[in-house]
Amino acid sequence: MTDGDTNLPTIERKLGLQIWGIENMKMVPVPEKAYGTFFEGDCYIILHTKRTSRGTAVDLHYWIGKDSSQDEQGAAAMYVTQLDNALRGNPVQHREVQGHESETFQSYFRNGIIYKKGGVASGFKHVETNMYNIKRLLHVKGKKHVSATEVALSWDSFNKGDVFLLDLGKVLIQWNGPSCSIAEKSRGLALARSIRDSERGGRAQIGIIDNEKDSPDLMQIMKMVLGEKRGELRDAIPDAKADELQKANVRLYHVYEKDNDLVVQEIATRPLTQDLLQHEDCYILDQGGFKIYVWRGKASSPEEKKAAFTRAVGFIQAKGYPSSTNVEVINDGAESAMFKQLFQRWTEKDETQGLGKVYTTGKIAKVEQVKFDTTQLHARPELAAEQRMVDDASGEIEVWRIEDLQMQPVNPKTYGQFYGGDCYLVLYTYLRSGRPHYIIYMWQGRHASVDEITACALNAIELDKKYGDEAVQVRVTMGKEPTHFLAIFKGKLIIYEGGTSRAQKSTPEPAIRLFQVRGTDEMNTKATEVPARASSLNSNDVFLLTTSQVCYLWCGKGCSGDEREMAKMVADIVSKRDKHTILEGQEPAEFWEALGGKAPYASEKRFQEQVTHYQPRLFECSNQTGRFIMTEVVGFCQEDLDEDDVMLLDTWEEIFLWVGKASNTYERNEAIASAKEYLKTHPAGRDLATPIILVKQGSEPLNFTGWFNAWDPYKWSDGKSYEEMKNSLGDVSAISEIKVDLNNINLNKRTLSTTNSTGSSTASASPEYKSHFSHSDSNSYSNGSNGNSSPSLVPNGEGIYSREVLMNKTVDELPEGVDPTKKEYYLSDADFHDIFGKSKDEFYQMPKWKQQNEKKQCGLF
């Protein structure tokens, strides 16, 4: 195959998932029923297309099984390159290695991934939905991203912390380790049900062992298959995951060839900026060895683009990283959300600032404030999420100041006035569906003491308990007030730089103060105190200058009439003196004198600013091991919020922490610390003052639920728990039948053992071999392990055939009943040994890809 080959199958332009396996170096479609099952001896190509706000996003993966051949790996990589060209460079390309798949890849298979031993060409052609001739043990790992690996049928494969599935065809036994979480048990059960429904046509029974003493019948079956347990099971081995500090260690390299050598030149470290990427070049971004990104510039040469994967693999080898390291190849202009978030700032062409953005002073863009209909918030929760609004801000407010580490009520006449030397608690109560909901804002002044900030958080917890632990808690840092916080004060939010609102003030208030007023209506207006000097002015805004004699309303040339009206309302609050409105350029001498004299200030017109369109991201967070670990849930939905989890939702402007009712006390108590750690270690160098919002399960506000598609408010009351799902499995009536079958198997094994001891050449097929190649009808079940010459082991009960009948024959030329994918199975033991130079037992112990290669050479493939 050359680069110019067009051996690609027909690719449907459709949303969703399409999978092909590599067979005879060609792409063969995998039936949808087999999606999520991968043979360890094969390579696969996965194409995923989804709709986005900017059109469609395409991801192209090639998956490498641990026992796949170099030829198959090369063919898969070649096809990915051809597919990328056919799709005009739009896909983001991924290299996936078995057991180390990216979170994006794992998100496609919500019920989990199953690894099967061997590599079976027939597996691409059809799926046996009534296949009962199976005996295998699956090791299930993961809470959010589940994978099941076939392991040895032995108690030695077990540990105390994971889920194991003993698959006996008609019965699936789920054994839950004593250290398993509810989420792990639930995911294991979901996988067992998926196997039952997709592979057994819904006819298999599922039994669950949570406590061995409570499940004697199921344990008896397990012991008949696995033998008696000897000694203690080992503890679970924690997954080797990269912590956030490792992921934050991003480095950008310019990679190119010079005199046939690969040159790797480091050009930048965190924080990275978008302008480092030049369209004429290709770059490698190393995320702490956790993942390697290859960025291909639009104007880079075709040779450089084709060599992307090769260079990435060479880079991994040069760095001494594991060969399983994820690789993502990205085209200029088609960057993934994960890639963009590694940069401090990423702008898209023709993207402008969203609604209600508040800016600091300086030469930055100004965007017209756009009013929206607050009555739509409940009908359109996605609007609530975009606008960061839980309601129309018409609820009730109570405000307390932290004084002597206790809550001191604030005079309602001064609601909305916050001093930088204080901390405040704001309780907002609103009705939703006739039921009260609560938000507790913890406002932290820039000059407040550490003790006051700590006391503010502790008092918030106590206030939350008073309202049934249902309140949403929001950490607000001075100067980073969220949209809804502005709205509840109806245009009267005033932030004083320092000082305190306490009755006994330690320092007198300054005689001259300057306030910058931003906002066009009661929903988005805030006045912030700035240094009282001329350099603080900005031609695009309105400023209030208060002195002991007068209050000046200074209107910059770029301000609007709505801004001037809102400034007049604020002026009545900050000063009782006479109000003098002055226009920029017409200031009296007294004005400049109060500011200490004239000085240059920002006077250029602001233009609309291009800003980043960041996609929301959901993470499971944990720091129990002493390392802060986050697992991303790609393509998230409400189902990903498990009761025993603490989840972090990053919408860029806000951080939500969702706390499940069954989450452990440690992670619950450390939730805010986890969010701060997330911001601190973010590769893009995030603003540590970003608002952090604590949300409790069952009390989610609209600005949280709006980020999820089809949010079900009754899920927590109507959704089935793990115990309810377990009880719904019904009667395991097949257990007694399985016991009888297993007793017969044990008898057959003893007979076989006696026969073999006399020197017979009878060989027993391995469980893996039988699970791939044995056929059975929908009403049969066999775990027999007879010799290969026995008719009962030959598919469809047929006998042995001569080599002349089987070798180099097409499907039409084979005897009736012979499975064309298993021709060698019908050979006599003597012919088999003569052709392959080994016994059947030895042959079937080989990796499946080696079996296939030998069958090809001998005309039996």
TrEMBL record:
<dbReference type="InterPro" id="IPR036886">
    <property type="entry name" value="Villin_headpiece_dom_sf"/>
</dbReference>
<keyword id="KW-0009">Actin-binding</keyword>
<dbReference type="Pfam" id="PF00626">
    <property type="entry name" value="Gelsolin"/>
</dbReference>
<dbReference type="GO" id="GO:0051015">
    <property type="term" value="F:actin filament binding"/>
</dbReference>
<feature type="domain" description="HP">
    <location>
        <begin position="795"/>
        <end position="861"/>
    </location>
</feature>
<feature type="compositionally biased region" description="Low complexity">
    <location>
        <begin position="776"/>
        <end position="792"/>
    </location>
</feature>
<dbReference type="Pfam" id="PF02209">
    <property type="entry name" value="VHP"/>
</dbReference>
<dbReference type="GO" id="GO:0005737">
    <property type="term" value="C:cytoplasm"/>
</dbReference>
<dbReference type="GO" id="GO:0015629">
    <property type="term" value="C:actin cytoskeleton"/>
</dbReference>
<comment type="similarity">
    <text>Belongs to the villin/gelsolin family.</text>
</comment>
<keyword id="KW-0106">Calcium</keyword>
<dbReference type="GO" id="GO:0005546">
    <property type="term" value="F:phosphatidylinositol-4,5-bisphosphate binding"/>
</dbReference>
<keyword id="KW-0963">Cytoplasm</keyword>
<dbReference type="InterPro" id="IPR007122">
    <property type="entry name" value="Villin/Gelsolin"/>
</dbReference>
<dbReference type="InterPro" id="IPR003128">
    <property type="entry name" value="Villin_headpiece"/>
</dbReference>
<dbReference type="GO" id="GO:0008154">
    <property type="term" value="P:actin polymerization or depolymerization"/>
</dbReference>
<keyword id="KW-0206">Cytoskeleton</keyword>
<dbReference type="InterPro" id="IPR029006">
    <property type="entry name" value="ADF-H/Gelsolin-like_dom_sf"/>
</dbReference>
<keyword id="KW-0117">Actin capping</keyword>
<dbReference type="InterPro" id="IPR007123">
    <property type="entry name" value="Gelsolin-like_dom"/>
</dbReference>
<keyword id="KW-0677">Repeat</keyword>
<feature type="compositionally biased region" description="Low complexity">
    <location>
        <begin position="751"/>
        <end position="766"/>
    </location>
</feature>
<dbReference type="InterPro" id="IPR036180">
    <property type="entry name" value="Gelsolin-like_dom_sf"/>
</dbReference>
<dbReference type="GO" id="GO:0051014">
    <property type="term" value="P:actin filament severing"/>
</dbReference>
<protein>
    <submittedName>
        <fullName>VILI protein</fullName>
    </submittedName>
</protein>
<dbReference type="GO" id="GO:0051016">
    <property type="term" value="P:barbed-end actin filament capping"/>
</dbReference>
<feature type="region of interest" description="Disordered">
    <location>
        <begin position="751"/>
        <end position="798"/>
    </location>
</feature>
